[in-house]
Amino acid sequence: SAVISQKPSRDICQRGTSLTIQCQVDSQVTMMFWYRQQPGQSLTLIATANQGSEATYESGFVIDKFPISRPNLTFSTLTVSNMSPEDSSIYLCSVRSGFNTGELFFGEGSRLTVL
Amino acid sequence: QKEVEQNSGPLSVPEGAIASLNCTYSDRGSQSFFWYRQYSGKSPELIMFIYSNGDKEDGRFTAQLNKASQYVSLLIRDSQPSDSATYLCAVSRGNEKLTFGTGTRLTIIP
Predict the structure, then answer these.
(1) How confident is the model at residue B17 (pLDDT cuts 50, 70, 90)?
(2) How close is the nearest chain A Cα to the Cα of B70, in Å?
(3) In chain A, N or C terminus with fewer CB closer than 10 Å?
(4) Does the bond joining B10 to the residue before it have cis omega, within 30 degrees of 0?
(5) CA distances, B98 to each of A40, A106, B10, B61 (Å)
(6) pLDDT, tens digit (0-9, with 9 covering 90-100), for B58-75
(7) Which of A43, A59, A93 to mutate to test binding with chain B, by most B CBs within 10 Å of its CB?
(8) Average pLDDT in the A84-94 region?
(9) Rounded Cα gap, residues B82 and B78, in angstroms
């Protein structure tokens, strides 16, 4: 299994500011996935972060709002830009298992509250 | 139509009974199917995965897959209060992204 560390674990932010979430994995992985979980909702994929190339964004998410970096095979960052209260969510970093199960491992999440 | 749909619940089941959770998906190219459990304030954790039609059992959990009907279910036998959580169905075409359902909140009543 993969061990994924995310920080910050939680933060309270002011409207209009930006916050960068860091994700560190204990092994090299090709793809890292960033999900958002709004209060009382399920998980929605924001983007897939590939090392050495631009992230692939899902419908409804754009690079200007959620820029992603992937400088190496064990690390990624997600920035939530120009935040509004609607961005208050849990942001989860995840990676797929390299084994046949292909299960998704999650970090502990970053809970952001935007005032 | 959402890609992955689940009954939102909440679903209440007496302790010791069987809890049945259902999920339908729209993408016929889906190949991998997962059930995750999420306790309040925690990240999702994998309960079961299934790739082939039929049943797959693991302890008190049984996953059932019917690709023709685009339907996957999770049965929890001898339900325990510790099974109270939100259960998320997820599907994948291959070794790429997982698409999650809306989740079903399950409460086991002592």
Answers:
(1) very high
(2) 20
(3) C
(4) yes
(5) 19, 12, 24, 21
(6) 999 999 999 999 999 999
(7) A43
(8) 96
(9) 11
